[in-house]
């Protein structure tokens, strides 16, 4: 295995670990840890796919990254609004 296959392997491990922790109720779907595992895992997989290209896998990783970034911003905005609400009873 070359370095890019190892990078992809680590990315896969991040995504699978995040999903496992979600199923074990270690992480909540909105937890930043879960979202970061997904984001970093997808980015590492995308790096691997730039060398060992597969169109279907490349497209799904691009969507995975975009959806995860959307979820992170959505959750950060929700937390910010919750903090504002606690200061304004």
UniProtKB/TrEMBL annotation:
Keyword check for DNA-binding: no
Key words, A-Z: Membrane, Transmembrane, Transmembrane helix
Cytoplasm keyword on record: no
Membrane-traversing stretches: 6-24, 55-73
Pfam family, one: CBU_0592
Location of the CBU-0592-like domain: 4-79
Source domain of life: Bacteria
NCBIfam families: CBU_0592_membra
Name assigned to this protein: CBU-0592-like domain-containing protein
Organism: Malaciobacter canalis
